[in-house]
Amino acid sequence: MTAPRRVAPEAPSRRGWCPSLARPMPTGDGLLARVHPPLGRLTPAQARAVAAGARRFGNGHVDVTARANLQIRGVTEATRCDLAEALAAIGLGDVRHDGGPQRLTLTPPLAGLEPEAVPALAQAIEAIGRVIPGLPPKSLVAVEAATHGISLGSAEADLHAVVTRAGFALRLAGDAAWWRLPDGAAPTIIEAALRLLAASGQRRMRDVPAAAWAETLARFGLQRIAGPAESAALSPGLLALPPLSLPDSESRRSPPPRAEGRVALLVDAPFGRCTADALDALADTADAVGGADLRLSPTRGFLLVCADAGVAEAARETLAGAGFLTRADDPRGAVAACPGAPACASGSTPTLHDAARLAEAFRPFAARGLRAHVSGCPKGCAHPGAADLTLVGRDGWYDVVLSGRPDALPATRLPFEAALERVRRADSAHSLARIFPDHPPGPRPS
After folding, report:
1. 429 band by pLDDT with thresholds 50, 70 and 90
2. Same domain, 320 and 338
3. Which domain holds residue 408?
């Protein structure tokens, strides 16, 4: 076995670059090493290896990312190579060393349980991406079926490919239209689009000039199958299978997909964070239910396939005890949060602790479908998009952003206790604008 290459860690302020095992990123609690499970799947043995690596070579904390990857925190300069070697030995090593994407595709956790075309296309795209030099590290191709129960429509993908009954449909970031791909041509056309991105010098497909993509369209003669006003009809959220659920009405999703009597169980890591012990519990549960693997989800969680409803219910109780979110009414599921201080060098507030307290106060708003986000800084790593309520850490206080991104102009600036008290005193009939009246934030009082 070839030893993993040793690459100098990068500064955390460098944007557009992604950490890996060979190239960990310095942050507040040491080096952060990212693990990219192929197609977002882990065997129970691999999950245990990640847990063991987190304990032995890190600080025992593991993040689950929105791209269905894992991050081991607290790695040191002395332990990072041993961690890379241990995970490479079990099939979780880096696949490229040129700074390009370690994992190019994002698939739903149900991929392969329904149409085999989804994992087959994803594997073809991964192979294509590894031979394209200069592909930006954040490049992402979302691949799913029109029948899947979990949509990837919110993923910040450069390309979005959907398997339909009529073949394949493709959409590029920044283009509202969908394009039908000729039979058998999906890998070739996606390769052309990725090479266009690599040659453009841009970081994301949305920044590639429209004229360049128009030339590709003309070369392949793609057929436009929906205009901007119609594209929602082809979005995965509208073309999905019946949504997931556990066997009762309080489950994370509704009603359960079944194949040969099996039931899918989806659990999430609160705020995308779990411990090595929780990961071990997950691996033990996967063995107990007879599942072949653990499927990482872009909801920052894991999907297990159980033999029947009774097995799924027992697994849910076990994983709830291990700290996972297992019920739809858990308000933590409505709040996104990054690690914050002291784990992240860019953060000045303890976001995970604050998010847990905010979640309970936010319960009536979560029941209405509203979302909150506690971010350590304006980068918004946990949720770059808009949320109904976003608290953005600044010098130990929080900028309050309503219905905006973390980098948007805040309505006010408050210490966390003051912001929490306003949410606590509100009821579900109040709008967030009434709770946080709009006035420019002044300087932090001394």
Report:
1. low
2. no
3. 332-435
